[in-house]
Each structure stands twice: as C-alpha cells, then as structure tokens.
Amino acid sequence: MTSDETAVAAANLAFYRALETRDLSAMDQVWLHDESVGCVHPGWHRLNGWSEVRRSWENIFANARRWKVAFEGVRIHVLENVAWVTGVELLTLSGADADDDPARMQATNIFTRRDGVWRLVHHHGSAFATETAEEDEPIN
Amino acid sequence: MTSDETAVAAANLAFYRALETRDLSAMDQVWLHDESVGCVHPGWHRLNGWSEVRRSWENIFANARRWKVAFEGVRIHVLENVAWVTGVELLTLSGADADDDPARMQATNIFTRRDGVWRLVHHHGSAFATETAEEDEPIN
Questions:
Q1: Count of CB atoms situated within 10 Å of the CB of B7
Q2: Domains in chain A: ranges and CATH
Q3: Low-confidence residues in chain A, pLDDT < 50
Q4: Residue A73: its chain B contacts at CB < 8 A?
C-alpha cells in the first residue's frame, strides 16, 4: 500500500468503527460537512447534504440494535485528492447465534482530501444475495 | 454547469445510452479498460477488472429484455481528474403497460479523466423501495 492508500484505509476504518460503536461524534469526524455529500443507505433514496446525512445516522443509532461490523474484500483507489473504497460490509446483530450469517452489504465509499485530511463525501450501501455464485449471470 | 461537469454529464449519458441500446461497442468506449475498474450490478457481488465487467454487459445484453432507460435526480461532482455522478436509473421494459412503474435503481458512477477523456471506472447500482418517503427512517 502507498501512504495515501494507508491514510484512506484508516479513514474508511474510522467510518466502520463509528458505525459499530454507534458514535455520532465519531461519525461527525469521518464526514465532510457540506451540501455536496450524499448517502444511500441500503434500499433507500439518496440523502443530500451533511445535515440530512447526519440526521439519518442519528436515527439509525437511536433505533437499530447493537451490531458488530466487519469490512471485507477491500479495494482502495486514490487519484490526487479523491479516493474510492469498495468492499462488503458484514453486520452481525448483537445476540445473533454463532450460526447466523451476518447481513452483507456492498459498499462504495468516496473520500476527498482537504488540508491533508480524508473525509467521506459519499456512501452507497446495498444488500446483495449471498447465494450469487461466480457462474451466475447478473440481470441488470 | 462548469465545462468539466458538462463533459462528465456527457460521459454519464453515453453510459446510459449504451445500456438502453444494448450496444457493447458503445460500452467499450464508456469504460476504462484495466484491472482497477469495478461494477456492482443490483443485488450482485462486485465484479473486478474490465474483462469481468465487460462479460457481465455481454450477458446482460444477450439475455435481458429491451428497455428504455432514463436517469433522474443527477448530482455531478468533479475534483481534478475524478468525477462521481449519483442519481436514479429508471428502467422501463419494452411492452410494459403505460401504467407500469419503471424499475428504479440508485446509482453511483465514478469516472476518471485520462488524456482529456472521462472514462467510467466504477458503477454501483442497487434497487430501492419506491414507497420510501422523506419522513421514514432508514434502517441500516
């Protein structure tokens, strides 16, 4: 990994740590605070601007059950002051049986660097079928 | 719109035109051809690299029914040589009744500029519930 990729990986990890710990002030640190940011929660329409996005995290943290969050299959791309990270979020609800499969979400996270700090500007998460195998054909 | 945004909008439109016309050679023109590109079709795992991504379009164009494609709620962001476009894809199957709602997909498209030309490097499409209203709470 380049040093840029390492810094982006750390920013991405901070996002998932904030998600797991349901820590709104940590989420405040992760995101850029302006009208340009966007967020698509799984199955949802896009939220526009930091105030809408922040409110959604506030609601999620207030209402959702506790969970463990992992992030797999990470690919990191950096070009100048923009980075995008893709991978699979694994959410395991607290109290789930050891046999229970975690919920799996495909994620695309876009970061921009301002004054040397990478901030999240777009998050797109979506459910996907775990039974899809390499040989199946996607239907668009 | 800035001239950069106009150029990105044109590249994004070319992607949806290629999708609507099921034109693989047009799709070839839209995408960057290297191992870094990625594509998440709705409900699917991420495809990595141009050869996998191209094969998926080949399969989709061979198997899917004809459709009309529109793209709404477009937001375009450009920073240096990276751009990201978000919006809602509306797919109307050919022969659908006028009353039939189109399928709606949230999309995140990332482009990079090389030698002055914007190429698609990442596409993430996902279904979303049309009944979600602004006052509902997303559950992550």
A1: 19
A2: 3-127 (3.10.450.50)
A3: 132-135
A4: 46
